[in-house]
Structures
1.
Amino acid sequence: MLSSFENRLKDKFQDAFYSENGHFFLKDMGESLYEVINELKNQYGFIVLVATHELSDDRIAIQLSNLEFHKRIFVLCKAQDLLVKNINELFPMLNWYKNSCTSLDFSQCPFPRDYSISEEEELAREYLNLGPISPLTLNLAKCAVELDGETIKRFKIATGYHRTGIESSLCKRNFLQLSALLENYYSPMSLEMSFLVNHTLETMLGLNISLRAKAIRMVMLELSRIGGHFANFERIFSTLGLSLESHFVYGLKNSVHELFGHYNHSQYGEGIIKLGGLVHDLPVGWIARCLNTLSLLGQKVSSLKNNLTNSTFWMSKTETYKVHAGDALAFGFSGPSLRSTGVNYDLRKADPFYLYDEVQFDIPLGIDGTNYDRFLVRLEEVNQSIRIILQILDNMPQGEYLMGPMKEWKKLKANGQRAEYIDAVSKGLTFNSGIYYSSFESTHGELGLLLEVKDGESSPYSLSLNLPGRSFLCALEKLLIESSYTEISTSIASFGIEGKEVDK
Amino acid sequence: MILDKVLYDKRNPLSSLLKIIRLFFADLLIVFRKKKMAPDILLASQLRGIPVKVKKGGCSDCDLCIQVCPTNALETNSNKLLLNVERCIYCEDCITFCPDDSLKSSKINVFSSHGENKNFLIDLEKEGELVLGKGQTVEA
């Protein structure tokens, strides 16, 4: 069925279409970009815009996803094609690329005159410039709000205040250095970042790591998911001024991160995942400590659920605008925010890696896509993560913890072949040229890494990260209209948007 | 798994009043039981820190740690291995890749050069002596 789908695409686009490293590509889509994307969306079922990647030589890769076959297509075009063409009618997020390179001019009012309302009505409205450093926008971006009383009538976001050029600076580093840099920069989600980099490099090498390393990595990922959800709750509570509750989940988050500390003295699990496996095997007594923490967490989560769900105060603060499932897909949502709208799509089920097809777990689905839904989905995901970890710890497989090039280098070092060892390490890793992409389900959504590699080079030619926060912030511009302006901060917190994710 | 519809119902005033009373007494009990109220805090002294050199001299020919370091924090100057503490992110790659195992991880993660110079550069051999005690460094 999949091959017939591929043949249909091949017949349609002929020479422009090719398949590489498990993904579809359409090259040099210059003048017919609008028609091509329209056709892909309406006839071939690529209904989700995952991300726009900035490649080398001013090229853009538009990544679309087909949920039915779980296939990705990359439409390659020039940057100026995207700026000229009016393709944001098809996907509202496509014009966000423009926002990332040009900032709003705040010297004048960013909103043009609204002719649909009377002059008196417009004069009664108020403009507010929020940020970039403001508790209401969580120091994320500069926002312009047009208010009628307390309700937002128009809302615009200008990003670019967290821009560090991390993607282009990473292109000057070799493949072995990527993991250490990314996990320290995206600090609370370090473990997920190091997993992403090493998993991508392993798929590029065609390396199949040992069963034990897979199991331990899964435990670490789920722990990191639990910690991420607690960090998210802490942020929501602190924006609403619930300091006692935020203090409570802060302790829970730290008890999860303490487990990483006992593994390798790291704060957020940086350095645990290495190329081809792990830094070292599980320390003695770690499993018992983990089980203790999990049983404690289970109790605490149920008490959090008992106290907050159905609570009138909590529901009045979090039952906000509703997100339609179709809109969520068009905006490119992923993770718990997509699932809170009722779309059953989780990369752990749709494209299972490691042992995810063997463990039993449920995917919690919300109904309306409000902040309250997102909270409930995250709370249930913590329970499901605990369930996954317990299943793996019960059946922990035996075997090696490290494989591949790192193990070979270790062998050379142990055998006393010093010159060969130095040669091998300084040469680094090299790959065949091509575009590689891999992604997985992280705490807040899909986390992806795109690497463009040239033959025999030890550093990436171009690199692009797909971070979930970008699409959420784009959507907020439209979602927040007709809601109260106090919902800006709670929405940003409940989606889990961070400044480092929006600007790269 | 679609979430329970019950989770979306608002509490009636009576049950929320009962809940408040129950929570009040539960909180009182915590005070009497002397349960730990403060959250767990991660201590910086337990986390990993800069690398230190545990072997004297003999560190000039390979430069592997300098190549591997992701932030260019290491440099050599007249047979001395220097570390810029401002740049070090404690990734421990230099320790794993060192061919002679002459580097070791430490728990020192302070952000200063102890007044050695103004460039945040410290001599890793001296630091090793500080960690292990004087005269404890092994000859290469």
Note: Chain A touches chain B through 47 residues (CB under 8 Å).
2.
Amino acid sequence: MESARAQARLNKIIMYVILVIMAFIMIVPFAWMILTALKTNQEAISVDPFYIFPAHGWHWENFAEVWESYNFLILYKNTLLMIFLRVVFACLTATMAGYAFGRLRFPGKNFFFSLILIQMMIPSQIFIIPQYVMVSKLGWLNTTMGLVFPGLVTAFGTYLLKTGYQGLPKDLEEAAAIDGCNIGQRFLNIMMPLTRSSMVSLGIFTALFAFKDLMWPMIVCTNSQTTTLSAGLAKMQGQYGNNYPTMMASAVLAVVPMIVIYIIFQKQFVEGIATSGGKL
Amino acid sequence: MNEPSLKKMTAAEKTEAKWAWAFIAPTMIGLIILNFYPAINTVWQSFFKSDPFGRSGKFVWFENYQKVLSASETWQSLLNTIKYALIEVIPGVVIALVLAVFLNKKLKGTSVFRTIFFLPMVCAPAAVAMVWKWLYNQQFGLLNNIFHTNIAWISDPKIAWISIGVIGVWSVIGYNMVLFISGLQEIPGDYYEAAEIDGATGIRQFFHITVPLLSPTTFFIVQTRLIGALTVFDLMFMVMDKTNVALKSVQSLVYLFYTYAFTQNNKGLGAAVVLVLVAFIMVVTVIMQKLEKKFVFYN
């Protein structure tokens, strides 16, 4: 008995050691990013391994400098607007289609749903060239509409919401039908509010995807006044790649807002990813 | 799913069908314009030679495919893509599984660890890649400084693909881990209690209970991550400069597609590369489905 308890304790210690080492590996890049952002370039390229912290004061003004010189306000605005519109469009179209596929009977249902499944199986790179040609013909290059364009509808979201609607009990809707509610009222007043958690999952997934995407904004928004944070960083790196504190300060500015949102809404993020399980 | 047939519908069924069609209309029209037409158009464009302005000009049959399939660059990129996928998916899944099992043990501080491991998931890969590029810097980077080495992490063709793979694993562990934890929570506790009574050790329990019962989750993760890794672009684009000598031995098929279609503005060639990629992913998907039947244990 005594040895079993000792064994359990040893196991616990081993687990903690592994977890702490892994956590350390995960944290180091973030820590080094922040520490470099607060140094002068001279300090950043000093090759003394114990020179971890800035020696001559913390250069918070690095952030103010990149904020000014790279117009971060505009990058934030563009990114936020794109995310907002993509989330609204994705949730709106997916909740309607998801309700129809999950609860209603209609001719052509199997055929249309198979189109949804097919879209989910095709790698999205095959859409990019013609989507780009369409955006450029519509005159939407370097506009928010151009950024939002490929995300106006979502097959994955429709699938996710359909599963959400299918899981709801039948009697609620039947009772409303007896009371004389038409399908539109039933959808809007009774069913849609009940799929809130699926909607939140889809919203988080869509926002993260849009925030992280690099290739599409690089293609359609080549102007640094109209582009997003991700594509903006790519541009900065091309121009000022050797000023390390500047680069790290802009990386910090690009990741901090989403990290703050994640820490506040952690439960929703983790559940959203676990339930949607989409490919990010 | 049984469907009502168009001819023999009651009035109520007709109303229901009208609502349904109206509800799916935006999504279906959107999918046709944004996805199905473009997919077909990409195939069409792959048969055209692009003029210097990027417009598609002459119909050239399979000339683009001939060019793509005879270029060593394409096969090298395909090999690079496979190498990246293996180095990201296998360690990424194994490490995430171990961490998930630990975090599922109700230890103290679980939520703090989970928050930390998941952190890279909410960061833009562009920023992540910039930070790692700085860590890997040969002259001034943290890694060479700490270990007193002088390794060209991202410009030595023999090492660069591993360095990129490490960034990939680092980025994806938290995501895999979260999916594993939710899979683990669905395994009934009775199995472990019974094993405990029979005197099975933790490691035996892991291999005889956790691994088989978790196989649907594992399969799902491997499949989605594999597809994700086979279409990798961001990390390579941000870490590898265009002048990097190791670029050729690291760049993925999607990177090559981007170079052809948008840097060199040769849409026909880009379309042909993307179709090679799609064909390859289809083959992988079919193989995965065969493996699923063989190895995945469904209750």
Note: Chain A has 15 helices and no strands.
3.
Amino acid sequence: MSGLDQGKMQLSGRGVACVRGGREVFAGLDFAAVSGEAVAVMGRNGSGKTSLLRLIAGLLIPAGGTIVLDGGDAEMTLPEQCHYLGHRDALKPALSVEENLAFWADFLGGERFDAAASLTAVGLDHAAHLPAAFLSAGQRRRLSLARLLTVRRRIWLLDEPTTALDVAGQDMFGGLMREHLARGGLIIAATHAPLGIESRELRIGGAT
Amino acid sequence: MTALSALIRRDIRIALRVGGGALIGVLFFLTVVVLMPFAVGPDLALLSRLGPAILWLGALLASLLTLDRLFMADHEDGSLDLITMSRTPLELACAAKALAHWLAAGLPLIVATPVLGLLLNLDMVATGAVALTLLAGTPALTFTGMIGAGLAVTLHRGGLLMAVLVLPLSIPVLIFGVAASQAAIVGPMTFGAPFSILCALSLVSLVVGPFAAAASLRHGLD
């Protein structure tokens, strides 16, 4: 696991504010996460969990405050060091499971791991040649997780990662997250359900 | 480079599979051109005079038809988020997508031109001239169309809006494309002048298109 074990890093936000469609979603949000730690972002629907992840991923521009990464790769921007697993799977129905994964591995670049082994790890090896159009919601989620394993990035931004996964799938995913943290990774996950691993809670949008 | 070639290969592969856009454009082109002799009537002289214009119109409409999906599909399934975040500059990714679109949807139009020229009573020289102008001009259609495709994602409106936005940009290409073809067939102008302007339009759009599309996609982040 070369390149992943070196150095601690810290992702922190100071006074982060988010405005969507003219409405303030949250403001003055402070957070910090260090490598080896998982942060579970909790809050009611519409409190801005997804928005926070998209702010970190550089897919939204903060209305105020700053998000900085200390101790990461100085050559790269924060989004370039992140994996973003959103509601939408970024899979092409016309391509097979294998082709979808191979494309993202080639396109995202960087340190690369065996795609077939990743498919085995998420339990999709039997469906490698199947077009993604025929996958169930849970299988699509598993294929997205295989992307996180094939291309190594230290920061995982996960949006409701366990939706559509069955119990065995959630256990498998818990194991993958634990491995990632053990390698010095960092996880920020927006979630309603318990993540299934030791995590620190970040509550946004007030109580309830 | 691996990233860009992976993107080009993926887009071509999707376009060529069932339900992809490549065949739709060619079929549309075929339909427009095949129907034209029936609409105009059996006047061979008139047909060969209108021929280059008909072929160019068909190619223009066929490329507009398929272009609006250029970014929309990636936007809808979340791929665009990952492309925006990636280590590949968005401008280069846009250029790669446009190139893939041209290879999958533009090139077949040019290959089909000689066959369709027969239906319009065009001789070898005329067909060759039209095919050559299409080869030089269709990249301009794709790369200016890409700006509209980017804006369509930003504004959350597909199809019609994009056609309206892109049409003014593609009019010069149409004018000089047809002018160059006519010059080669009947004169009296030289072929070189309008053809050079056509090539210039393509080169300018090759440079401006990716930057404009990437700026539009970045602006529309949400």
Note: The interface with chain B takes residues 20, 57-61, 76, 79-80, 82, 84, 86-92, 94-95, 99, 102-104, 106-110 of chain A (CB under 8 Å).
4.
Amino acid sequence: MASSTREQKKLMKKMTKEKRLFPVWAVVLCMVPGLLHYIIFRLYPSFMTAIYSFTDISGLPGTSWKFVGWANYKEFFVLQNTRDLKAALGRTAIYSVVVTLVQNSIALVMAVILNAKFLRGRNFARSIFFMPVILGAAVVATMWKLIFSTPTGPIYLLMKDVLKIENPPAILSSYSYAFPAVIAAQIWQHMGYSMVIFLASLQSIPEDLYEASRIDGASEFQIFWRITIPLVWSAITVNTLLAIIGSLQSYELIMTITRGGFNTATLGMMVFATAFGGGGATASGGSVAGMRQGYAAAESMVLFAGVLVVTIISQTIMNKLEAER
Amino acid sequence: MKKILALLLAAVMILAAACGTAAPASNDGGEKPAAEENEGGEQAEEPAAEAASGEVHVLTWSNAATVDFLNSIVEDFHAAYPDYTLVIDEVPSGEIDQVIQTRITAGNVDVVSFQTFAKPQEDWNKDQIDKPAWQQYIDEGFLEDLTDKEFMKVYNQNTLAGNEYNGKRYSLNIFTVAYTGLFYNKAIFEELGLEVPKTWDEFIAVCDKVKEDGRYTVLSAGAADQWPLNMFSNAIMSANYQDGMKEMGQKLLTGEIKHTDPEIMLIYNCMEQFASYLEPGVAGISYSDAPGRFALGNMAMYADGAWSAADIKNAGAEFDFGYFPLPGVEARADGLDPQYGIKYDLSFAVPTNAPVKEGAFAFLEYISREDVYTAFANAVGMTPTQDVKLDNEFLNSLSDGLQAPCINAEMYIYAPKGVGEYGSAQFSFLQLKALGGPFTGAELAEHADEDFEAARQAAESLND
């Protein structure tokens, strides 16, 4: 029995070797650039961020700094205004949940529509929907600021002239509407990315399955629910995790649209403001002087811990759901 | 064949990685301040060799008149100093602090622009505030000491002394600026029979008259950016308490007086009245759009600093406009008409790691020449710090309000570190219900007090 297993393994190894396009050493060498990039630009900075979180480093090169133990963490949890910290954490959670759910829902619907063979110009449409992904945050922010500007922006004019609202609110200066507006901009910018992942997954589903189900009399909704969703579930898992991680860390659009003011400061925004300064960018919505990269690093580590926990929980849930399906 | 192909592919990939990750071994400034003691930190590097020629990068914020003028002297500067070419790097006003930090860190800027060196961390407040960025730059040796430079001697020494730090001058204060006033449309004032107000009650009466007439916007500002409107909570303080705000600002920080005390509540009351005359939707009007809206000619008053006169003209204003200081509730004790609050505006500093440092000094020398300086002051409409005669009609019209100017309250109002949202926004117009915010003035004052107290207690527990 043992000898048979050994022979099977040997045979498998031989077959695998014969099927290889390139030798192992070539594959490893090809991985070197990616690994180098990962180590130099991801792993090393992450490691140093953890180290810096225990220092009072300012961020200006060549200047003095020293280890301060847990002082930065103590300051984060003690000195930070508790009410505002809770509010910022709450906003971070809302931002992440709404972006993840809405972005992926719209992206999936759009992917299904743009995967339909009868649709003319669908490649062009895919490009259009993907285009915001390649735009920089500054471009997206400028565009949305124009859309929401007062009193000449289209949204303001729509509210005033079409909806006949007497004193339409200035959306991006509103304590109620600025945050939803930033979320909308985030979804608009990143929806195309999720859509492309869904499209790739949809295109791998064999057409026979759809034809067979139609012959069996399944409705379009049943086909979508019973065939499409289960077969793109791995894409849903990937997109969900990407959206959760991306939105938890996100600060670019908040920085460029509201600078963290008007109840839009999230934890990611706070980290940026602490390191580089910014008006209306703390959890408190107030301005900070910046140049406290040691403290910013401590905030980053708190954010990292939060992202890690949320990611592990999400992945566990998604894997469980996938297994059930 | 497969092996050769694999070898080639791998070689290309490694080469690509090497190209992508190798840091250029340039010596164009590098990153480094003057030598400082390092407590377990990085060893300060030696200064990079300074170039004796090349591009002199001047970093400044978006003020159209300033940027236009600086760009207009590029050729003349090159003629005067053939070794150097001036490059003006303009960034949005709201981003200047971050860009200064990143450019100094990168060591690729020769002249940086500051406004004023205000609110330093000192013994009395060291537990309550962080060091402002400018103080960190100086303390860490990132800014050149300009005190003994020849070009500094042509400026009004008393004025320069006001921006000293530790008895040294780390920036060349090109201008001061009056910015606690309102632009007004002279044609509208004349048509409605209005006079420039000398007291707060007269100001309110002017606003009421324009409002009753109904044809014109009473008052506006670039409120979406917040700071342009918040200048006027400071203006209200300066109009009422002048330099007395220095002591009041310190006492607010230490808790000796409260936001809810009557003298501070007067400020909140005036803010609410002021806000009630601002045009609907003002909270969404961006600062960049605001001067152009006044220039259209259907607005009676526009709240902005005097520096915007050039922008208003450039926006095509075809009417006469003037500028008057916001008045206080009570008449001044010295019997003078309302006076402006001022601050240092546009101060040039030279980073110690500037790659073309001598070029930076050459630029400062050039800009200080009387003819160049006079043209600069005329172009931007700010108050000169050299004793030169200007032909800028608008600037000369401010002289009555500059007989006894005070340093504007903005330079005296602190917020303790770690303070909550409402303490941080203690005098923010956009927190007021009148402009879509959550509070009345009295409520904002109460919340600001609560946040200040919480921050003080947290700081104490942190220090224990």
Note: Chain A has 14 helices and no strands.
